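Hypothesis: this fold can be encoded by more than one sequence.
Test: take the structure tokens below, design a sequence, compare later.
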């Protein structure tokens, strides 16, 4: 299934695909658009049951991160894109890692932001999926606020509204996908030049998770963003934009 998506930026520019985190929509990346669209064609997409994408069809409980990566591949094929840069936050980052492993020739560069090679325990994700299937995403709001942002962030409601609007089955299916995701022993197979970004105050995917990625992916670079929790792209776009554009510009000039 091709996910809901949107293009921004010059039509003849190289393409960077932006993957969102669990509980957010493609609008998560709005703080990056003014900078990225100067020189890149930006392709954003929604996860199943988030934004404009319908919840996963068939047996949603069998959804995997590899399935989500295959959806991105279908999106690239649909738009005639052979090779792209990819940046993703949290689950969107996991999709990028899976994409780089499944189709290395299609990923020219990789930015992994506030993500991990393994997210917590399978039991915790199954429990969250069961809660959301029973009661929706509303019970997650306050706990999510403290995971996504530091206490002083003033624009949290904008992003929490994305969580409130997520389809429960789509959100739960993504939890099921995270429950079985583990690529710790495959990081050495990633060939794309990689930038790993961590929020210094991220309780969901702490800097130690980012260090595992940066150590495991050959020649990956690690940047820790001060004053940011899990959604560093929203909380510290000044730092994140600088690092992403630096990484992509270096790639573009040497390609």
């Amino acid at each position: 299934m091709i996910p809901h998506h949107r293009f921004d930026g010059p039509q003849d520019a190289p393409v960077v695909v932006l993957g969102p985190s669990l509980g957010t929509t493609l609008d998560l990346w709005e703080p990056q658009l003014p900078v990225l669209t100067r020189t890149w064609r930006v392709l954003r997409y929604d996860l199943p049951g988030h934004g404009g994408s319908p919840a996963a069809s068939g047996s949603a409980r069998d959804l995997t991160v590899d399935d989500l990566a295959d959806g991105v591949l279908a999106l690239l094929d649909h738009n005639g894109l052979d090779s792209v840069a990819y940046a993703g936050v949290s689950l969107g980052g996991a999709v990028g890692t899976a994409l780089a492993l499944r189709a290395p020739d299609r990923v020219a560069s990789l930015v992994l932001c506030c993500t991990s090679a393994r997210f917590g325990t399978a039991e915790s994700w199954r429990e969250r999926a069961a809660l959301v299937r029973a009661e929706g995403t509303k019970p997650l709001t306050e706990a999510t606020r403290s995971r996504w942002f530091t206490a002083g962030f003033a624009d949290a409601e904008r992003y929490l509204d994305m969580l409130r609007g997520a389809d429960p089955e789509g959100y739960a299916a993504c939890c099921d996908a995270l429950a079985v995701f583990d690529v710790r022993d495959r990081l050495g197979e990633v060939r794309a030049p990689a930038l790993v970004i961590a929020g210094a105050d991220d309780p969901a995917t702490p800097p130690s998770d980012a260090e595992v990625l940066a150590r495991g992916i050959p020649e990956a670079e690690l940047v820790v963003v001060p004053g940011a929790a899990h959604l560093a792209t929203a909380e510290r776009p000044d730092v994140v934009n600088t690092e992403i554009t630096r990484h992509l510009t270096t790639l573009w000039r040497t390609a």
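The first strand starts at residue 5 and ends at 8. The longest helix spans residues 237-254.
Hypothesis status: open.
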